[in-house]
Amino acid sequence: MLSKKLLTGILSLLFILLLSACNAGNDAPQEHMDSENMPNDQIDQDDGHMGMNHSGSGEVPDGLQEAENPAFEVGSQVNVEADHMSGMNSAEATIVGAYDTTVYAISYTPTDGGSPVRNHKWVIHEELENPGSEPLEAGDEVIVSADHMAGMDGATVAIDSVEETTVYIIDFMPLDDGDQVTNHKWMTEDELSAE
């Protein structure tokens, strides 16, 4: 009699544990698309930014010049019109820094063995190893010394696009209830608008 009660108790406990395990983490449906099945222009944004250091120290590379007449002054409030990461597009942001430089979109294979990243926006001229004084051109290859994402620092990158512009460092609160992002690098003028 005692063994039947014990067996019934154990089976009941296992059943409850099984139901709990089946329900864990299924509060919302999740979609996953690996980078091989994702359009080229979406790999960086959706998959490649998973390892991105969205917040930064605020330190800037040596030789980077502060913008003399930026469209958005340091301390001003702006709206973000880019989706480098989840919750960024349409967020309100504060300008932390404004710098005149050449900015690049790049493609590369991370040094840590991660999936290839295509059209990552952005790295600046001063974050490249020995780039020379003149802007590089689309198609050029160079080593990057920035660590915006895991496996980026030291990677050989291909330049996808080049633009001479003012770049900004911003602070913002993501709209997807993520944590406050501070000193996010980099945004271009056309990715921001006045409030």
Q: CATH homologous superfamily - what is it?
A: Domain of unknown function DUF1541
Distance, first to last CA? 75 Å
Number of helices: 2
Uncertain runs are 17-51
- What assembly state would you assign to the polypeptide chains in this entry? single chain
Mean pLDDT over the full residue set:
81
Sheet-strand content, in percent, reads: 25-35%
Return the CATH class: Mainly Beta
Provide the number of structural domains.
1
Q: What is the N-to-C order of secondary-structure elements (H for helix, E for strand)?
A: HHEEEEEEEE
Helicity, in percent? 10-25%
The CATH topology turns out to be SH3 type barrels
**How many E strands?**
8
Structural class label: alpha+beta
3D shape: globular
Protein name: YdhK family protein
Keywords: Signal
InterPro entries: DUF1541 (IPR011438)
Organism: Metaplanococcus flavidus
Protein described:
The protein has 195 residues and is of the alpha+beta class. The chain has a single domain, classed as Domain of unknown function DUF1541 (SH3 type barrels, Roll). The protein has helices spanning 2-23, 40-47, and strands at residues 65-66, 77-80, 92-108, 117-124, 141-143, 156-172, 181-188, 192-194. Strands 1, 2, 3, 4, 5, 6, 7 and 8 form an eight-stranded antiparallel beta sheet that branches. The N and C termini lie far apart (75 Å).
